[in-house]
Design brief:
The chain has 370 residues and is of the alpha+beta class. Helices cover 19% and strands 25% of the residues. The protein has a single domain, classed as Jelly Rolls, CATH 2.60.120. β4, α3 and β5 form a beta-alpha-beta unit.
Length: 370
């Protein structure tokens, strides 16, 4: 029997697509993970639900996005999806090109920065990291041992890391995470509903993650510190009158057609304050060889309540990209969504468990307006 695609097996006309989503159960207080970059153990997500996923197709181009009024938009949903092929999608480049840090820096980073300038209207795009996911889900993966930090004895196969020194992609900017597959194995999907940064976590991130990120965010940090020094709030209208708007985004695209573990995104307007569950994620302070400091980045998990709306792209292709708001100072100010970002998660689709591991690339960036 021929293997069915997700579209044939799961996406049927008139039949809702159901995916397994993992929430934190009511009343439960999750324990943080001891592993760098990791969400709490999956056992902390005890409320598993099969929920309908709304297909985002058809996808507009970047130029058509502003006129696609019925389509998910950053300013309303907290995410968007566009059709956006890049230089690396054309000959002489192939799948292996997407795993080459030098080619990504030469082509993909500037191509994506230009896309983000068009979509957001910001003035500056600073790429902080690229994260390659190429493994099936694991509780502790290559993230935990990135750049010589953390779980050096918990790499692929349970052996010790063979790295004797750190490469420029592990110390410089942007950070390349999950590319050292031979040594550390691949990074896996994150099948737990989460928002990477709380407002406080986002503010700590731009200060602690990497020295180059702090330099790029210097005007933001200076304005916020001045307000705090004067006893004023570093957010809302007081900040908007003192410093530039800023936002953190994840630009997510697959490297091949997604057959399992697709990414699901929530409409941020469908979540209430009571649905947010604070948690800390142990995060290394990178870009400082020999320094093994970590900081606890504030993040959010989710509790279920009626009305949550989830979206995905069926059989998502490499030319199709999701832009996810992790924090936006203007969204926070306007109260569109107090945390300033949107929940997301990889999602289990029944019948796809034997498909090949999903391969995807996340480019994380800081955007700053005037």
């Amino acid at each position: 029997m021929a293997t069915m695609t997700i579209s044939e097996e799961v996406v049927q006309p008139g039949k809702p697509v159901m995916g397994k989503m993992r929430y934190v159960a009511a009343g439960h207080v999750p324990e943080p993970s001891p592993h760098n970059f990791h969400l709490p153990n999956i056992s902390e997500f005890r409320d598993e639900r099969l929920l309908p996923l709304h297909n985002l197709r058809p996808l507009p181009t970047v130029g058509a996005l502003p006129k696609a009024v019925s389509h998910a938009q950053l300013s309303t949903h907290g995410f968007t999806a566009v059709h956006h092929p890049t230089t690396l999608h054309y000959p002489p480049y192939g799948l292996s090109s997407w795993k080459d840090p030098e080619l990504l820096k030469e082509h993909y980073v500037p191509d994506t920065a230009q896309m983000m300038l068009q979509i957001t209207g910001c003035k500056t795009v600073f790429t902080e990291s690229l994260l390659l996911r190429s493994a099936v889900w694991s509780e502790s993966d290559a993230l935990a041992a990135h750049a010589g930090h953390g779980d050096k004895n918990k790499v692929a196969g349970g052996g010790e890391s063979k790295a004797t020194g750190l490469s420029e992609p592990q110390t410089g900017i942007p950070q390349f995470i999950g590319f050292d597959v031979v040594d550390n194995g691949g990074v896996s999907p994150a099948p737990k509903i989460h928002l990477d940064y709380s407002p406080a976590g986002a503010r700590l991130h731009i200060r602690k993650y990497h020295p180059a990120l702090a330099v790029a965010a210097a005007d933001v940090i200076r304005a916020e510190d001045a307000l705090k020094g004067a006893g004023k709030s570093a957010r809302g209208d007081s900040y908007a009158n003192s410093g530039p708007r800023w936002a953190l985004y994840s630009v997510w695209r697959p490297l091949k057609t997604v057959k399992r573990d697709p990414l699901a995104l929530s409409d941020c307007r469908t979540f209430q304050d009571k649905d947010y569950v604070p948690v800390v994620i142990k995060t290394p302070c990178l870009g400082q060889p020999g320094i093994k400091e970590t900081h606890n980045a504030g993040s959010y998990l989710a509790r279920y309540s009626e009305g949550h709306t989830w979206y995905w792209i069926a059989d998502q292709e490499p030319e199709e990209v999701l832009v996810i708001t992790l924090f936006d100072s203007e969204m926070e100010r306007q109260g569109v969504n107090a945390p300033g970002g949107t929940f997301h998660s990889s999602v289990d689709l029944p019948g796809t468990e034997k498909e090949e591991p999903r391969e995807s690339l996340e480019l994380r960036c800081l955007c700053i307006w005037e």
